[in-house]
Amino acid sequence: MSTLAAPLALVLAMSLTACGSDDADPPSSSQGATQDGDTVAVTVTREGDEFTPNGERVELGVDQTLVLTIESDEAGELHVHSTPEQEIAYDAGTSEHELVIDRPGVVEVESHEPDVVLLQLEVR
Known about the structure:
Blueprint: H1 5-19, E1 33-36, E2 39-47, E3 50-52, E4 56-60, E5 65-72, E6 76-80, E7 86-90, E8 93-100, E9 105-112, E10 115-123
Parallel strand pairs: 2-5, 4-10
Antiparallel strand pairs: 1-2, 2-3, 5-8, 6-7, 6-9, 9-10
């Protein structure tokens, strides 16, 4: 085993162990996300083919509500690659949508047209 492989294996093992944590405190929110008790709020903005955020990681507790406010200049659809997968259709203007993920892991929220990953939900 190379000198880099052993520390990498240790880090990976520790990160997998951390996923099974039973901490009572909800995870902290990431930049661009706000947390209010049992909910985390994120605003998604679409102007043409440009989205904000773009690939941001947001920490979320299992069964914690994510409130997505979508501000868009045109109608579209977001895909949430959870189990089961979820779709969020939105119209032009401002709309609000709630998501709850009931399993730990990393869940991507993306647009397929254009193909952009907006969020990576780190559910613990």
